[in-house]
Design a protein that fits this description.
Blueprint: E1 2-5, H1 8-19, E2 27-31, E3 34-37, E4 42-44, E5 56-60, E6 66-69, E7 71-73, E8 78-81, E9 84-88, E10 98-101, E11 104-108, E12 121-122, E13 125-127, H2 129-132, E14 144-149, E15 152-162, E16 165-168, H3 172-176, E17 199-204, E18 215-219, E19 224-228, E20 240-243, E21 249-252, E22 255-260, E23 262-267, E24 275-279, E25 282-283, E26 303-308, E27 311-316, E28 319-323, E29 326-331, E30 338-340, E31 343-347, E32 352-354, E33 367-368, E34 371-373, E35 376-380, E36 390-392, E37 395-396, E38 399-401, E39 404-406, E40 413-415, E41 433-435, E42 438-442, E43 453-457, E44 460-467, E45 470-474, E46 484-488, E47 493-498, E48 501-503, E49 508-512, E50 521-523, E51 526-527, E52 534-535, E53 541-543, H4 554-562
Parallel strand pairs: 1-2, 2-5, 3-6, 4-21, 5-22, 6-23, 11-18, 21-26, 22-27, 23-28, 26-29, 27-30, 28-31, 29-32, 30-34, 31-35, 32-36, 33-37, 34-38, 35-39, 36-40, 38-41, 39-42, 40-43, 41-44, 42-45, 43-46, 44-47, 45-48, 46-49, 47-50, 48-51, 49-52, 50-53
Antiparallel strand pairs: 7-20, 8-9, 9-19, 10-11, 10-20, 12-13, 13-16, 14-15, 14-17, 15-16, 15-24, 18-19, 24-25
Organism: Catenulispora acidiphila (strain DSM 44928 / JCM 14897 / NBRC 102108 / NRRL B-24433 / ID139908)
Protein name: Right handed beta helix domain-containing protein
């Protein structure tokens, strides 16, 4: 049965009326080609689900572009001088973190990396307001300072400046500091101001920093944005969108539902507590609360599409683009659901999140049997650079297959959670398959995120397989800053790493460094890497791996050419470090 509509709410009402009488065949809800602006998410529940063995599909009309947008048009631009243009921001927008001008992202103006060698960090803030240049800004209370420490990313708003001291908004600052108990007792060495690891910082959103085209500044008092156009942009005719809505579609307990050929665009992420990155796009939020040692207290990024407790939900051929948070989340007991043949690009946070961070979920909340396949991820982590393209937490029977991941600031695929904490023992985790993925150009040096891996795992995962993936190019050179090709971190155990091609990674091609990561096996892999791998976990075995190659053998080339979302054969880079 086919029904056509050009209004989402009308379509949903009519479909629910029809479904209440049962289904005798599959139903397709075909949407007219246009942009559907949303001020609230479209929510699918049991009332919208398939019936009697039949599915309900929401799709775009053939050849048409259907976009669900969380943005609003921004017009009325006025020239200000020096090539800058100014526009008033509607009251419905809280704090615009991005603009999209003729389909291109514009971010807050930013400084270069700041020299903080003489700055002192303490509970009150950071000294050096003058030396850092922030004291000279006309509106320091609109400034946000970004800190990068190892794998963690922090964005804390400035509250005020007193003499030479920069004070930051709470709870962001306390959550970011060592010695407060907020980051957990084992992570103080990656808090802001750590004396163990190096860290970096820069300032954003000051008019004094607006020197490069394609950037803007938000003035919260006047409620204006000031933008410096790129060459050729005519602001009297430009199509400018500012994000407003955080979520576009929420699937709450629905089943036998298909979303096909839709685009999700222009979402916001309001971040009232600032951004204190924990790992992989998760954040520490709130001023207080329980801090379980298994990492079960962190907050997942808001996503354009959220599937909670879904059954047999398929997301196929969709585009996730220009997003202020994450792309898609499958969580809260979602089972037998699939994200396939989709594209994720220009996404501020991660691409796809599967599963949750409770190691022992109730049966109805355990995620199982899901698939992420044949998708492309390009430039995710565009704003929050500690994010990963594909993340999975405590989940079983997950398939991550034939995806293409490229140009990522940090790690590519991350599966597992919990570190080596007592609460994380014997978790809901295992029988996951990470196969035939193409992961190139990760851990990009310009972003200063360290200690990751193209494929990264945590936790005991009996039955998990990492096989036939092609990993090429990370940028830090032969230092521990780079992380690894395949990184079996912390308590990663019982994992098979077989038949992968790992080339031109800066540090170790595989690492199972912790003695409590046990019974892993790396067999039949190919690499040009000559750094001795870390594979010291009890009962872990390496065998028949070809290391230090100067040329890939034909069987390795076939694996590399067959990896990714296509087209195939995919290109395979020659070995050796390319010219800068």
């Amino acid at each position: 049965m086919l029904l056509s509509f050009d209004d989402l709410d009308t379509a949903q009402s009519e479909v629910r009326r029809l479904l209440s009488g049962g289904l005798e065949e599959d139903l397709e809800v075909r949407l007219g080609a246009k942009t559907y602006m949303r001020t609230r998410p479209l929510v699918f529940t049991e009332l919208d689900s398939g019936r009697d063995g039949h599915t309900v599909t929401w799709s775009a009309e053939p050849g048409g572009h259907v976009e669900l947008s969380g943005g609003v048009a921004l017009d009325g631009w006025q020239p200000e001088g020096d090539g800058r243009w100014v526009a008033m921001v509607p009251d419905v927008i809280s704090t615009p973190r991005q603009l999209y001008v003729n389909g291109l992202r514009a971010s807050w103006a930013r400084s270069d990396w700041l020299d903080h060698a003489d700055c002192k960090i303490g509970p009150e803030g950071i000294t050096g307001a003058g030396a850092l240049g922030i004291a000279a800004y006309a509106r320091p209370s609109d400034v946000e300072v970004v800190f990068r420490v190892r794998w963690r990313d922090y964005h804390c708003p400035v509250a005020s400046i007193a003499d030479d001291l920069i004070r930051f908004a709470e709870p962001c600052w306390t959550n970011a500091l060592p010695g407060t108990g907020r980051v957990g007792p084992h992570w103080d060495n990656t808090a802001v101001g750590t004396e163990i690891h190096g860290w970096s910082m820069f300032a954003t959103n000051a008019l004094e920093l607006l020197t490069d085209p394609g950037f803007f500044v938000w003035n919260s008092e006047e409620r204006t944005v000031t933008y410096l156009p790129r060459e050729g942009e005519d602001m009297e005719r430009a199509d400018v969108v500012v994000p407003c809505t955080e979520q576009l579609v929420v699937v709450e307990g629905a089943h036998d539902l298909v979303l096909k050929g839709l685009s999700f665009a222009h979402t916001a992420w309001h971040l009232p507590d600032g951004y204190v990155g924990a790992q992989a796009g998760f954040t520490l939020t709130g001023a207080s609360g329980p801090l379980g040692e298994a990492g079960s207290h962190y907050t997942k990024p808001v996503a354009a599409l959220s599937v909670r407790g879904g059954r047999r939900v398929t997301v196929s051929g969709c585009a996730f683009v220009h997003l202020g948070g994450a792309g898609a989340v499958l969580e809260a007991g979602t089972k037998d659901s699939t994200v396939t043949a989709c594209s994720f690009s220009d996404v501020s946070s991660g691409g796809v999140y599967v599963g949750d961070i409770d190691p022992h979920p109730a049966p109805g909340l355990a995620d199982e049997g899901n698939t992420v396949s044949f998708n492309t991820f390009h430039g995710t982590g565009a704003e929050f650079t500690d994010s990963v393209a594909i993340w999975a937490g405590y989940t079983r029977n997950l398939t991550i297959d034939h995806n293409t991941l490229e140009q990522l600031p940090y790690s590519g695929i991350s599966v597992g959670w919990g570190w080596n904490q007592p609460e994380a023992q014997d978790p809901w985790l295992g029988d996951n398959r990470i196969t035939a993925n193409r992961i190139v150009d990760v851990l990009r040096v310009a972003e200063r995120q360290h200690d990751g891996g193209a494929i990264y795992t945590q936790g005991p995962q009996r039955g998990t397989v990492v096989e036939a993936n092609y990993i090429d190019r990370s940028e830090y050179g032969t230092t521990a800053n780079d992380g690894n090709g395949i990184y079996l971190d912390e308590q990663s155990s019982h994992i098979l790493v077989a038949g992968n091609v790992v080339t031109r990674v800066g540090y170790k091609w595989v690492s199972n460094w912790a003695e409590y990561g046990v019974e892993n096996r790396a067999a039949g892999n190919w690499t040009d890497n000559t750094i001795t791998p870390a594979f010291s976990g009890a009962g872990s075995v390496m065998e028949d791996n070809a290391e230090g190659l100067t040329e890939l053998p034909p069987e390795a080339v076939r694996v590399a050419e067959g990896a990714g979302a296509g087209p195939w054969p995919a290109p395979v880079a020659a070995l050796g470090i390319p010219e800068p």
